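Quick entry between incubations.
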Amino acid sequence: MDEFHARHASVVEATRAHRMKEAVPLLRDSDKEDLLARFHPDYKRDAYRAIRFGPNQGDETVHELAALLEGDSPLGQDPVDLSKPDYRVDVLVLGGGGSGATAALKAREGGSTVLLATKLRLGDSNTVMAEGGIQVAVKEDDSPVQHFVDAMHGGHYKNDPALLKVMVEDAPFVVNWLDSLGVLFDRDEDGNLKVKKGGGTSRARLLACKDYTGLDLMRVLKDSVLNEESIRVIEFAPAVELLTGADGAVTGAVLRNLDTDQRIVVQAKSVIVATGGIGRLHIQSFPTSNHFGATGDALPLCYRVGARLTYPGTFQYHPTGAIHPEQMAGLLVTEAIRSGGAHLVNKSGERFVNEMEARDVVCAAIIRECMEGRGVETPLGRQGVWLDIPVIDTMNGEGVVKRRYPGMVRKYGRHGINIATEPVLIYPTLHYQNGGVHIGVNCETEVPGLYVAGEASGGVHGTNRLMGNSLLDIIVFGTRAGHTAAERAKEVEHGNLTLAHVERFRAQMKAAGVTPETTSPMLLPNYVRRPSEAVETPA
Amino acid sequence: MLTEADQNLITVEIMGNRHRVPEAMTVIGAMWYTGHTMTRGVGCLGGVCGACATVYRTKDDFALKVGLGCQLKVEDGMSFFMTPFYPTAKPNYRIDEIEHPKEELFKYFPESLNCRNCNACNKVCPQEIDIKGAVKDAVKGDFQAAADKALSCVMCGLCVSRCIAEMAPNMIALYARRTWSVFYATKHERLDRQMADIEKGRWNDEWQKILALDDAGMKEYCKARR
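Done. Structure below.
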């Protein structure tokens, strides 16, 4: 048993029997709103400021993102030769996660020549880490309408109804497509697709591959892309600037090869931006569940060409991010563990919120416990509460935890912690960007030739995404973006490659009296110990 | 938070150079701590993408060990390097063009028959998968067993680097898993029924109603159905 757990977790075991008999009621709407307003990070005023120019002038977002949106193009001092593009394709896909891979496959299916450029490797993404599942209505008592109702309620009624409708109705078709590629969803004893319940939902409709859903999906999608010889893939080459034509349409992009620092100019009839999330901005200093490359690149790139953002100030903090041991800080403990029956327990051994409330409510409750002195402190000073996982085995029989959550068992097992017998410490972790670039039902933006799919887009989840709807989002909208971009390629010619949008952007910046704090996109976070600290300690 | 002074410093060797780093750091953490900027070798930082495969030795031990750099803790006297890429021969196959997956295994992966039971792949797998067993299962035609074994494969490529028969065990297992799912796993009538219902427009009237609702109407509609 982990040393810290051995010394501090006994209150969890001592109170388990009592807690198993307890029913914690769901909060009324007014109590929920009060809890969020007082404790959820989205409501912390001094973490926010207004965006000073551009399509979202006057809208508020966190400082970290505002700085990037108002950031300057990295193509400043060093002119790029745009007269001879290195690649000329129908469709350029930026991003190598679930939505990018799907978009590339679908664009290819639509007859386009495709280049997929990704910052890290194809498959390095948030998708690969998804654990809990993908939502699709399959049971008799369920329907796309019911799925819509759950997501709309969870999203605080801020979801774009048109986007949400297409997502829930496309759901069985895209799941069928994944199945046809070889994603191996769990079956129940009767051989039917096994469904589980997720937080905030009224029906069980999560399909999963144990707790490795994202890994299986990404493995299969990556293999499918690699099997398509005609899809050109360039890794370690993120976009640093989009390119526009005479009428302001997006006509390509400039990539930077991270190995060689060389720039790559791509001319494309459509650009699909599928660059994922923002966790590595560490908004409000939260740890994050996100992968190394999740620096929100879509937002400044699209903002600079004139695309509008939806709900740019709302972020999802996943309630159960590991905080101990330190090596696991920020890593997700899947929500499926909560829907499987685990309890959230404070320092005194008490439950303090119904574990199946939507994520933002559960987060706010955990933050409240810690701020009001009922949290537990780790050896390195992080605050959190207990997640009593062993109660699942107590309720359902020994071996259930090990069977249902092999990924989680392994992750903690590496550090000598057995989650079937030990509770773990958790705290909210920065997990997902609820908002993003505004899109229509076919992923179109206000800028011709620019499409956005997946986490980088906004509207479908309102201001709070439900578990299992992100994996659905990326495949549905990756599909739509791919199809639409392929159709556009048949109808238009290649446009000129210019940086005119950068000039327009700089003029707006100047008129607003803004001096940029940084260039954007960020590309990668910098965790290297700072030069002033890095005195070589003789070994 | 503990300061550096509180943390014990240990000695590790990074690609041959010795450094002092705080104990209880991960391999990737130690790289950043010692000033290495990393582009390759960092991925999900969560133990599932295989970007950070690390090979190492510990003090006074000749044995080579492996781990994932984002999770593996450094120890005093450890000598490591990271292997972010290994050239892997991967046959191209279209899952929708395969007709006889068990026979076609040998068309795409003829080298799968050459396993000499050396067990190097099993010893090097950071996920502790019986990947040799998965290859044997696939060759025998037991694709379900191969699929089960390969569930947690993060495609790090270490098995490819060690196989003396020069096959890619991870790719063989993935082929078996994908084709097992498509050809042999039970079908899903419920999904077919939902697709048929949607194509028939079963909920179209309801959608018309819903999309015409104003904010207050939407709240009322949803709450009544929760």
